[in-house]
Specification:
Layout: E1 17-22, E2 41-47, E3 54-56, H1 75-91, E4 98-102, H2 110-113, E5 119-124, H3 127-135, E6 140-142, E7 157-163, H4 172-181, E8 183-194, H5 196-202, E9 214-215, H6 218-227, E10 230-238, E11 242-249, H7 256-278, E12 283-286, H8 290-298, E13 305-309, E14 318-319, E15 326-328, H9 332-335, E16 340-343, H10 349-360, E17 365-370, E18 373-376
Parallel strand pairs: 4-5, 4-7, 5-6, 7-8, 12-13, 12-16, 13-15, 16-17
Antiparallel strand pairs: 1-2, 2-3, 3-9, 8-11, 10-11, 14-15, 17-18
């Protein structure tokens, strides 16, 4: 059984739509010598129940790695690309940066890119098309974004371009992860695909072809990009029927604040424990919460705490994980008095401090731990 080309879920159930006797490809047209051997094919259009992608469940055409364009040099397309490039470069500050087109054909869209203050590159799988691009003086070479491990010459790039190429790919995840791995941090992309929203609006069954394996709506295109490490910054419809989007390589979430907080809290609790030790005072903690367990073990503060008080009976007579501090009922205080109680119970600190002073006497010191600081209550 075929699986979804994005998320891998089996494409089970009946097809959404079937084309009978459809053209087997949109290129390599039969001539007088081969037309008698040409025949149509049946195509099943399916939708993934998980991610929603509309797709054919057939094998790709043999030339899916090659970019074959009929109107790339038309005035309409050249003007559109120049407008898109101007916006992309000015908005995302790509001046003097490295920009590569993935699947550049014979350089139709690399050519207008050379009019801007960027370093323009392109890769193309077809040797014939590469030669044509090189003959135009363009910095283009034979390559294909085959796997996530594929290294593209001159990488890392600051931005990439890909025009109506992704819908041909049987393994879009591999292609996008290859691009991701060959981009600098925060790298920008300009990607276009035929809009399936437009196809559905017009009920345009004639837009379905074997060459296009995947049919992206705005929603499934966004899912594909996010699934492969990109965030969609902008999207629009161009030429009436094409989804155009600006994407950005998603960076790793910074944990610097976490580390800073941990470092500060370690120092705060260490200083507090040392001060109480010099004063000959015993420390207890109130609140057998997951926050308390983590703080006591990770900061090392647990080594200075005699016990943890908690009113929940099911926690009493157990031990805190990792730090192994005994968890006791509030009455335990009278058998083993503590001089200072650190309350680790977000939202209940004032209530607990009031109850502790009423129960154990007003001279007991109560502190609330908030963030990386201790506050006297």
């Amino acid at each position: 059984m075929k699986k979804c080309m994005i998320c891998g879920r089996p494409l089970d159930g009946d097809p959404l739509f079937q084309l009978h006797h459809a053209p087997a490809s949109a290129q390599n047209l039969p001539d007088a010598d081969t037309v008698e051997d040409d025949s149509g094919t049946d195509l099943d259009l399916r939708q993934c129940a998980a991610c929603g992608l509309i797709q054919f469940d057939c094998e790709p055409v043999p030339y899916f790695r090659d970019v074959i364009r009929g109107g790339g040099f038309s005035e309409t397309m050249q003007n559109l690309r120049r407008s898109q490039y101007r916006h992309l470069i000015e908005t995302y500050h790509l001046e003097h940066k490295k920009v590569i087109e993935i699947g550049c054909g014979e350089g139709e869209f690399v050519l207008p890119l050379t009019c801007f203050p960027v370093q323009a590159f392109g890769i193309e799988h077809s040797e014939t098309l590469v030669r044509k691009a090189v003959n135009r003086g363009l910095n283009v070479w034979k390559a294909f974004a085959e796997t996530p491990q594929t290294v593209i010459k001159n990488a890392p790039f600051d931005a990439f371009l890909m025009f109506n190429f992704l819908e041909h790919q049987p393994r879009p995840n591999d292609m996008l992860r290859c691009i991701y791995n060959n981009l600098s941090e925060g790298g920008i992309g300009l990607v276009t695909v035929p809009s399936f929203d437009y196809v559905c609006e017009k009920n345009a069954f004639y837009e379905l072809m074997r060459d296009h394996l995947a049919y992206y709506t705005e929603a499934t295109f966004r899912f594909l990009m996010e699934y492969n490490g990109f965030e969609v910054l902008e999207h629009e419809i161009v030429n009436g029927d094409t989804l155009s989007a600006v994407v950005r390589k998603r960076g790793k979430t910074s944990m610097k604040g976490f580390q800073d907080n941990l470092t500060a809290l370690k120092k705060c609790l260490s200083d507090f424990a040392e001060k109480k030790a010099r004063e000959g005072k015993k420390i207890a903690v109130w609140g057998a919460s997951h926050q308390a367990f983590a703080i006591l073990s990770v900061t090392g503060f647990g080594a200075h705490v005699s016990y943890i008080i908690d009113s929940a009976a099911f926690k009493q007579n157990h031990f805190a994980p990792a730090s192994h501090i005994p968890i006791v009922a509030p009455e335990h205080y009278f058998a083993e008095p503590a001089d200072a109680i650190v309350i680790v119970a977000p939202g209940y600190a004032a209530e607990i401090a009031k109850a502790a002073k009423e129960r154990f006497g007003s001279r007991i010191e109560t502190y609330s731990l908030l963030g990386d600081k201790l506050f006297v209550i």
